[in-house]
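Wait, mind explaining this?

_____
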Amino acid sequence: MAKRTSVTSVDHSPEVERKTRFVQYTVAMLIRVACIFLAVAIDGWARWLFMAGAILLPYFAVVAANSVGSARAKTAAIPVAPLQISSKDFIDASPK
């Protein structure tokens, strides 16, 4: 028999997930802006580090913000297939 979904295993609402992803993306973009300002203000090898952060951070921010398969989703229950009843079940169950 398939495992049923429990109320305690239900994920967060779409609004809460959307807000969480928005906050994560906003923080990442604020860090990117800081990297851009620091790349302009600082000289030497650190400039290259901040430039790399400013260039690569948007990709990682989008991937992290849009990742649906988070650690919470690994504990989600497997969807249950619909119950199939055939007419043969009713014919065999009739009294003789």
User: Anything to note?
Assistant: The chain is about 60% helix and 0% strand. The chain has a mean pLDDT of 77. Residues 32-65 form one domain. The longest helix spans residues 14-41.
